Each structure stands twice: as structure tokens, then as C-alpha cells.
Amino acid sequence: MTSLLILVIIAIVAVLAIKDLRMRFITRPVFSFFKKVLPPLSETEREAMEAGDVWWEGELFRGKPNWDALHAYGKPTLSVEEKAFIDNQVMTALTMIDDFDIVQQRKDLPPELWDFFKREGFFALIIPKKYGGKGFSAYANSTIVAKLASRSVSAAVTVMVPNSLGPGELLTHYGTQEQKDRWLPALAKGDEIPCFALTGPEAGSDAGAIPDEGIVCRREFNGEEVLGLSLTWDKRYITLAPVATVLGLAFQMKDPEGLLGDKVNLGITCALIPTSHPGVEIGPRHNPLNMAFMNGTTRGKEVFIPLDWIIGGPQYAGRGWRMLVECLSAGRGISLPALATATGHVATKTTTAYSYVRHQFGMAIGHFEGVQEALACIIANTYQLEAARRLTTTGIDLKVKPSVVTAIAKYHMTELGRDVMNDAMDIQSGKGIQLGPKNYLGHGFMASPISITVEGANILTRSLMIFGQGATRCHPYVLAEMETAAMEDQDEAIERFDNLLMGHMAYASRNALSSLGNALSGSYFAGAPVSGDTRQYYKHMTRMSAALALTTDLAMLILGGELKRKEMLSARLGDVLSQLYLGSATLKLFEDNGRQHDDLPAVHHAMQTRLHQAAKALDEAIRNFPSKPVSWLLRALIFPLGNHFHLPSDKLSSELVESMLKPGPARERLTFLCPDFDGDKGGIAEVEAAFEAQYQCKGLYKTLRRAQKEGKLKGKLPQDELYQAALEAKVISDEEFEALNRANVLRVAAINVDEFCSL
């Protein structure tokens, strides 16, 4: 038996080592099989693949992430100019915002705020300085939008749209010099207000299915016959359209008469059109969940424009899809994540404060375990949101175009933002649902589904984009193998494929052994770049990375092109990648902040949640794998002892909440996007003042409770009567009496809600 086994091993080694044998018995059969099962790439998929860059997500897909590379990306920081703008212009803008007035009464920003945004360059954050813009970093852009969103989603959206997907960004990257000189200075000054029309009734998340057409033709323009486009479009959901002076338009460009060449369907193209141009119709406004930012429709029928209105000029005809993918991915990584992170900062600041000042059954509600369970999620998710915001903008500022990363950020951060808001509303309950000037949650709660739906509906982002692009783009061999399989020269293709196959086999074998070894040892032998409290998280993340790589390999091998249609399976594998990315961001933020000990409860809660969610998604993917033998193999390699990644304990949740029910640096780091300032019209300063006053009196409250237990004071007295009795009994001094009364006045104001004589 032993001799037979040795002979088998020798035969396998010989086949692998001797090229002629390997080519005959392994490479050629596998190559033929790959050509049949590997998913074909459509033209739009290929453009999407080529448009973006592989960044940190590529490491997570390889099974052995280079954690040192993650730490080497650097810490995002604000320049002196960016910080000055935030400390001055942004803070001034916050004092001008009355969101109740904006949403419930005006249905628009007040004229003075519009003028301030234009005059101070809020619409020019990404426009280069040489054209009069700010030229700010992605991190600064995100921070500005988030701070505005802490007081008004409507104001934040108004600012973020010109600074994400829109004419300004497209012109900066692709415009001709003449177009840049014509438009960018006017956009920077606010003399021109841009919008970008991409979405239509029949093309939402599937932007590649744009039905709007531009037909190449000759017509008269400015007194002479020129070559141009006859445009017909019908767009909706276009933010800033009702007030826009310049319209960016995406359409399918066609040349049926062959005026430009032999190609009839040139593809998606982007053009820039003044809204005053004859035939351009700006329709009525939409009402996006009662928010006040401008959003509406635009249409046109056989509107003629010259070819040089194409963004980038005629040479960019048909290249709009790639332009959109590159710019859309950047917007996904900045704007919507900024809104979600602001939600977390507001929810953490106000809900910790409210939970401390709101008493029921003689105790602050923040000390009830039921409340602590939800409050711990708010705090940990906010830490996670801030971490992901920083890592994602870091990638963008490194001048990479991480399309998979930004899809992860868009989907998971907007969903986390919604979760945070739901938990905050549950805890603050009546305070949250009664709309009025004092309500700081209501409008954010109403607006949270907006981020879920725009720039690609979240369901499709999760089920089609994250893993669909990530598996092919980030895999070290699959994309190259697909390109090889499509080569016309078969001999050259076989030769190249042989090299790829050997590398792929070694890669797959390593991940299989790593998955099994880490599962059996509790990730003991996995590497980690740090020591201390977070060391084990790096090890477990490496284990999950190897397991994801192994499962992806087998899924693509067994299912091939069918994997595209297995959206539930793809979504779960995408969830594993996403949780690994979010976990990476959390670990990096902890390092960037200098490994602050008071951040550890939030880090532990966030990381244990990420690992639990990753393992759960992987477990469900294995359980639902179409091939049962492969499912059994994966379970034996990845979870041979079962899945033991659990959610955070009740003890950890309580520790996290108790650490945040007091003023301190950790709480400030998690709420800095929601600043305090004089003239705050939204109720946040009110509840924060009550929180601080109550906390300063915590020793006095203990004194009063002790006096009640000793019989010096009656129990269950109203607050004002209790303080008066304590003063008369000399339990407290006059100064202490004044402090308690002041804290109580602030407490009552903070827990009260708005009342109206009529609505």
C-alpha cells in the first residue's frame, strides 16, 4: 500500500514537473474547460473593470493580506487651508441653518444660505485652484459634507452634488481646455449651478441601459451648418435640476448615416448643455421624502448641440460609460458615506446625552440593559462608520480609483447609517418622532432611505457589484486567465495559461491549507503586525481572507458564468469581503488614533461584530452552495470545528455604553463631526448642555440619594422640591443648590418636545 502511494505521488510530481506531460494531461484539458465555464465579459463590464483600480480589497482577496501595507497608507489629515475653511466658513454656515424652517416651511434653503454657499466656494471644493476652486482633498470634502449633514441633510446634499458626480468633476478629468476655461471658473464662483442627468424612468441602477439618444446629424447652429447631435432624453431624480444653469447629460450616441465613420452605435456619451439652450426642458420638482434639496426632472426632444459640447470633445464620443464609472465610484466613496457617518456622530452625541438626562423608574435610561444593547450598537457602528470614511477617502486621495471599495462603502455605510438612526429613534422615542425646531433626529430618519436608493440601489450594489466585480478584478489569476482564454493565438494562449495555472494551483492549495490550519488552531499561526489587544483580530481576519479566496475559487470553478445569476450566493461572498474591508478600516483607525485605550471597547465591539458577520455570511454561502460535495469540502476546510465567531457579549456592550455616558476624549473623537456652537437652532446644543450639567452634578445626586436612604430626605420627591428640602436640611450648600437647579432646568428643556397651536 505504501509503495503504491509513493508511486502515485511520483507520477503526480512527474506530470507537474515535466512540461510536455503537464501540458498534455493538465494544461490543455483545463484550458478547454476554463473556456467553457469562465464567465464572459460584456463590453460594459470590461470598461467597468478597466476604469477602476484594485486597492486594499485586492489584498483581502489574496488570502494573506499585507497588513503593513494597510498601515503604510498614512493617516488622513486636513491641510491648513482646509482646516481654516471648516473652522470658519463651515461653522458660519452651520449657524445659518434652521433645518425645521428649511424643510417644513421654505422647502428650500434660505436665499442668504444659497448666496453664502456660492460666494464662499462650497460648490467648488473639487475644482482645481487655477480655475478658482478650492482643490480640496477627498477627506476634506467628506468632512465638510458630514458637518453640514449634522444639522441639515438638505443643505449637505445641496453642497455634495456639485462636488461628486457632475460637470465639475467630469470637466476636471476629461474636459477640453476650452471647456475647462469656459465652465470651471463660473462653476467655482457659483455663477453657474450644475446638475448631472443620468437616471431615467427605464435606467436606474442599470445605467448602461440608458435609452436616451443623440443622433449625429448636420444642422444650422449660430448661423452656419455644423456637425452635431440631435438629442432626445427623459430624466428623473436629478438633484439640483430645478435650479441648474448647466446640464450634464448622459445618452447613447448613434451615427446611422455614417457621418463620423463606420460605427453606428458609438456608445454612452456625456455632453454639457446650458439649461437656457433652446429645447432644454427643466421639469417640476420631485419631493424626496419631504427633504428640501432641489430634485426634479429634465427632458428634451430633438435638441441640437454641436459636437464640441461633448465633454472632452468629439474624441470622447462613446467613452462616457468609462468616465461615469470612474467618477461615480469616487462620489460613492465620499458623499453618501459622509452622510451616513454624520448620522452616526449625531446619533452617538445626542443619544448618549439623552440616555443620561432622561430618567425612568428613578434611573437614567442609559443604565437599563435593554437600552444599552441598542446604544452599544450605535456607538460601535459610529466608530465603524468613521473608520470606513477615513480609509475610503484615503484611497481616493492616493489617486486610485477603488471602484469595489467605494461600492462597499456606499452599500454598507448607508445601511449602517440607517441601523444607527433606527436604534437612536428607538431609544429617544417620543423625542425623536415629534417634529419641530428641537428635533435633531426626525429629518435624518426620514431621509435615510434616500441614500439607500441613489447612485445604485443597495440591493443591486450588494448582489451584483461588490462580489461580481471584486471576484474578477481582485483575484490574482482569474482576470488574466479570462483574457488568455479570449486570445486568438491558441498556441500563445496555452503557453501563457500554463504559467497562470501553475500559479493558480499553488495559490489555491495555500489557501486551502491556511483555512484548515487556522480553523484547527484558532488562527494561532496567522501573522499579525501588532501586539496587544487587537493582535488576534488581525489573525482572524487573515483566516477569513484565506477562506474567502478558497470559496471564491471553487465557486468560479464549479459555477463559471452561472455564478453571475446566483445573486444570493454572490451577495454573501461579497458580504465577507465587505466585512473584511470594514474590519480593516476599524483596525487602521485604532492605529491612526495612537492606540487610545479608551477606544478599545468600541474597537472590540466593532471587530467582534465584523468577524461574526463575515463568518455568518461564509457559513450561509457554504450551506447554500449548489454542489453538495463542494459544500461538504468547504465546511471541512473552513469550519471543521464549527463556527465560533459570536456577537459581542452583554458585558462588553455595557462596558462600552458606560464608557460613553460621560464627557471625555473618546466621546469627542466619535462626535466631532457634530460640533457645538453658539446659535445652534436644532436642539443638539440643548441636550448636550443638559448632559454636561447633569454629569457635573453626579456627585451631588449621590449625596441626595444617600440622604434619602438615611432618612434625612423624603424619597420620590419632585426634583425642585427635593433640592429645596436638601438645602433646608443643609445636605447641600447654596452653590450646590444653584447647580442642581440649573441642571434640572436644562434637563427639562432637553427632554421636552415642540408644541404647536396649529399645524
TrEMBL record:
Coiled-coil intervals: none
One Pfam family hit: ACDH_C
Cofactor field: FAD
Superkingdom of origin: Bacteria
Domain Acyl-CoA dehydrogenase C-terminal bacterial-type, first and last residues per copy: 472-756
Record flagged with keyword NADP: no
Enzyme Commission identifier(s): 1.3.8.7, 1.3.8.8
Pathway: Lipid metabolism; fatty acid beta-oxidation
Annotated InterPro entries: Acyl-CoA_dehydrogenase, Acyl-CoA_Oxase/DH_mid-dom_sf, AcylCo_DH-like_C, AcylCo_DH/oxidase_C, AcylCoA_DH/ox_N, AcylCoA_DH/ox_N_sf, AcylCoA_DH/oxidase_NM_dom_sf, FadE_C
This protein's UniProt keywords: FAD, Flavoprotein, Oxidoreductase
Residues covered by the Acyl-CoA dehydrogenase/oxidase N-terminal domain: 101-191
Family membership: Belongs to the acyl-CoA dehydrogenase family.
Protein name per UniProt: Acyl-coenzyme A dehydrogenase
Organism: Shewanella sedimentimangrovi
